């Protein structure tokens, strides 16, 4: 009986489902056709531009700025399209290939500016800038920063946010070890790399009890391939920075680079004041930061770590990245530009939107809306320095100004095929960290592989 | 009843002894099963426990076993942080229709492969199976171009309609099951004037409860967990699915992810899967009982 009833209901059920699907398809198909009709007809003067960004609060806050912009520009409508971080690049590539290219975006995924530039995804903004009369100085953007996204005198991107490298330190751990706090002044030459190691030794506790283990310093300065620069060694040839990120030569097996890596990995393996990646993962999770768990005395990291500062369960301070001989580069800059994609159908309107986002008052407003994203405008920066509870604004200002003075733009934005390079570095350097291979053994392999990746 | 006490004085004691021995083994295996169950449930326990912790407590190391303060408001906050209800509804709708689509299309195709005789049938079947070797990224862009030309971007259609065109793995699974059904049943149906479609509906499907339940679970879990396809095709946030919303919680490289809220989302996301399993498991047993032939 039961079975029969079930059989009887099956047919109408299938029919209903089919009907729903058909109705659904008819409905939505019509709607989207209507939408494109409006957008592409050109009858009305209104155009819609799309800004593609990451789906996280510190990026999507721009949605809140749209009403003001649309009031100023009644003929331009702005639509925000978002994707999670991991899928950012895949979606962008697919949208471009499917002729649904967004108008404005930035290199928020794994691929950097150089990768986009070499894939010919970016629109040359030089003419638009000339026609518009745009001057970086009007927006308090320094010319040095404008140069980062200029290739052979053609501008491809306009900076909007800027992160520097800084040292975050756990005041509670410093107090417990009876150590003085490190200085935030970059010109204080008494604050050296060796001094940092000395302080780190006093804070490091390696114990069988996981709860007691803590390390003095986590020196995650820039991405792995850039770290030799801190020790004054140049792994990529000079032309990389002027020709769009394709190095004519790399020097990853040079004695200077090898010495630099030996000093760095020495922190983990010989000095034993830094944690291994495994330990960090076990304490803080896959992409987590053990500093957040209160297990690291000093963390050299990007200034984005400040954004979470108000939630840390301990007191923190900011300090300068220590001096190391006469090194000129002590900070990695992470300048995010706004880019117009080649597939954009309304580049001029997109440029209006970019200019709007760069205005001083909007940059100031953005700091709060985003929860502490650092503006590129030097004027708005003053507001940014004051944004963090419990950290002296003067220290943040010192660290920012020093960071810019001794800064170099991050390689991940400037070298082509960077996502592949970075993956390769992580994989190849793993055995050094675990002590299974030496730097001398690994670097020639990296040098060979990187040459292949760059040629791709 | 009265025969039991009359079996004599020796037998009860020997019975008891035997039962005791038997019990010891049972108790041992019971204890070890309980221990293993607890081990298996430990991650689940941490998921639920973290979902009730405050943001500050979640960062503590070593982590606390139970929340110091039970923050039930997390379960309300998730609805404010994400448009959780909308995302949940979207995922359920897409998942449900995917299951229906997969069941209809895959069982029809599988029925054909199992019961029809035709030239080159095996070659077609091999061809079908070979599509399993194509990774999604390989067809991602062509498929996107196709659907974008059909004006299906930012609708649920690219996520649902493909399910109505069969999936190789499920067709394979069902075909294997259908071939085990005895020919006699279909012969009898044919004698009584049953058409092929009717035989699919009235003989093959009702006898395949367990296989259909398996396919339904596979299809639902696949759709429920799928992240890349909705990310590619959906652009308005009110159309996002649950995995897209959950992924965006950890999207910021610059923040500490709100793990406690993510755990709330995970706990709630688990509910339909567990329910489906409970329902399908019943069908599973029922299917074996009803077939009676296997």
TrEMBL record, chain A:
Keywords: Cell membrane, Lipoprotein, Membrane, Palmitate, Signal. Residues 1-23 form the signal peptide. InterPro entries: Bact_solute-bd_prot1, SBP. SUPFAM superfamilies: Periplasmic binding protein-like II. It comes from the Bacteria. Pfam families: SBP_bac_1 (PF01547). This is Carbohydrate ABC transporter substrate-binding protein, CUT1 family. It comes from Paenibacillus macquariensis.
From TrEMBL, chain B:
It is a multi-pass membrane protein. The chain crosses the membrane at residues 27-48, 92-111, 123-147, 159-178, 199-224, 259-280. InterPro entries: MetI-like, MetI-like_sf. Residues 88-280 form the ABC transmembrane type-1 domain. This is Carbohydrate ABC transporter membrane protein 2, CUT1 family. It is found in: Cell membrane. Belongs to the binding-protein-dependent transport system permease family. It comes from the Bacteria. Keywords: Cell membrane, Membrane, Transmembrane, Transmembrane helix, Transport. Pfam families: BPD_transp_1. The keyword Transmembrane applies.
């Amino acid at each position: 009986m039961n079975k029969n009833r079930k059989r009887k209901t099956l047919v109408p059920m299938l029919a209903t489902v089919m009907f729903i699907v058909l109705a659904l398809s008819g409905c939505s198909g019509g709607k989207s056709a209507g939408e494109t009709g409006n957008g592409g007809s050109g009858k009305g003067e209104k155009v819609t531009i799309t800004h593609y960004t990451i789906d996280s609060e510190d990026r999507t806050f721009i949605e809140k700025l749209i009403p003001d912009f649309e009031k100023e520009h009644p003929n331009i409508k702005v639509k925000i399209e978002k994707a999670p971080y991991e899928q950012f690049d895949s979606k962008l590539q697919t949208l471009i290939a499917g002729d649904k290219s967004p108008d404005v975006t930035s290199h928020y995924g794994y691929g950097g500016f150089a990768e986009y530039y070499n894939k010919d995804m970016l629109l040359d903004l030089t003419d638009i800038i000339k026609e518009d009369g745009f001057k970086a100085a009007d927006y308090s953007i320094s010319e040095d920063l404008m140069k980062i996204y200029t290739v052979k005198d053609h501008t491809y991107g306009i900076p909007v946010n800027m992160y520097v490298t800084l040292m975050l330190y756990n005041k509670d751990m410093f107090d417990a070890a009876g150590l003085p706090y490190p200085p935030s002044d970059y010109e204080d030459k008494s604050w050296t790399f060796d001094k940092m190691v000395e302080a780190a030794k006093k804070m490091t506790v390696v114990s069988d009890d996981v709860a007691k283990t803590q390390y003095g310093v986590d020196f995650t300065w820039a991405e792995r391939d850039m770290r030799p620069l801190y020790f004054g060694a140049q792994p990529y040839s000079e032309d990389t920075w002027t020709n769009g990120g394709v190095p004519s030569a790399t020097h990853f097996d040079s004695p200077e680079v090898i010495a630099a890596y030996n000093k760095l990995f020495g922190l983990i393996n010989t000095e034993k004041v830094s944690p291994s990646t495994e330990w960090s993962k076990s304490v803080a999770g896959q992409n987590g930061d053990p500093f957040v768990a209160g297990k690291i005395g000093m963390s050299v990291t990007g200034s984005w770590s400040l954004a979470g500062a108000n939630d840390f369960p301990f007191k923190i301070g900011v300090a300068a990245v220590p001096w190391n001989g006469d090194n000129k580069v002590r900070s990695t800059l992470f300048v995010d530009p706004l880019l117009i994609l080649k597939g954009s159908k309304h580049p001029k309107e997109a440029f209006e939107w970019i200019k709007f986002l760069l205005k001083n008052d909007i940059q100031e407003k953005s700091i709060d809306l985003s929860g502490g994203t650092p503006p590129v405008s030097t004027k708005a920066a003053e507001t940014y320095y004051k944004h963090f509870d419990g950290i002296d604004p003067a220290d943040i200002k010192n660290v920012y100004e020093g960071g810019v003075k001794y800064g170099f733009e991050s390689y991940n934005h400037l070298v082509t095929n960077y996502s592949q390079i970075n993956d390769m570095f992580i994989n190849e350097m793993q055995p050094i960290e675990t002590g299974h291979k030496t730097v001398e053994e690994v670097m020639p392999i990296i040098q060979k592989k990187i040459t292949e990746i760059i040629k791709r | 009843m009265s025969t039991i006490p009359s079996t004599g004085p020796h037998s009860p004691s020997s019975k008891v002894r035997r039962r005791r021995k038997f019990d010891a083994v049972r108790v041992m295996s019971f204890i070890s099963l309980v221990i293993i169950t607890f081990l298996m449930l430990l991650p689940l326990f941490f998921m639920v426990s973290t979902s009730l912790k405050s943001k500050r407590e979640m960062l503590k190391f070593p982590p606390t076993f139970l929340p110091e303060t039970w923050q039930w408001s997390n379960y309300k906050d998730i609805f404010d942080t994400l448009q959780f209800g909308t995302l949940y509804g979207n995922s359920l709708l897409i998942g449900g229709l995917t299951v229906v689509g997969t069941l209809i299309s895959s069982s029809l195709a599988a029925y054909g492969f199992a019961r029809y005789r035709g030239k080159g049938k095996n070659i077609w079947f091999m061809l079908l199976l070979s599509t399993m070797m194509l990774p999604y990224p390989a067809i991602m862009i062509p498929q996107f171009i196709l659907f974008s030309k059909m004006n299906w971007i930012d609708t649920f259609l690219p996520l649902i309609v493909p399910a109505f065109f069969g999936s190789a793995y499920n067709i394979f699974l069902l075909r294997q099951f259908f071939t085990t059904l005895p020919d006699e049943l279909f012969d009898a149906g044919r004698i009584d004037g049953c058409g092929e479609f009717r035989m699919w509906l009235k003989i093959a499907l009702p006898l395949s409860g367990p296989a259909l339940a398996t396919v339904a679970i596979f299809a639902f879990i696949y759709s429920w967990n799928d992240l890349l396809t909705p990310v590619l095709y959906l652009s308005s946030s009110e159309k996002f699915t649950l995995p897209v919303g959950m992924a965006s919680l950890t999207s910021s490289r610059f923040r500490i992810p709100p793990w406690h809220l993510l755990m709330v989302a995970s706990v709630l996301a688990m509910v339909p899967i567990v329910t489906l399993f409970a329902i399908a498991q019943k069908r599973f047993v029922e299917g074996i009982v009803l077939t009676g032939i296997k």
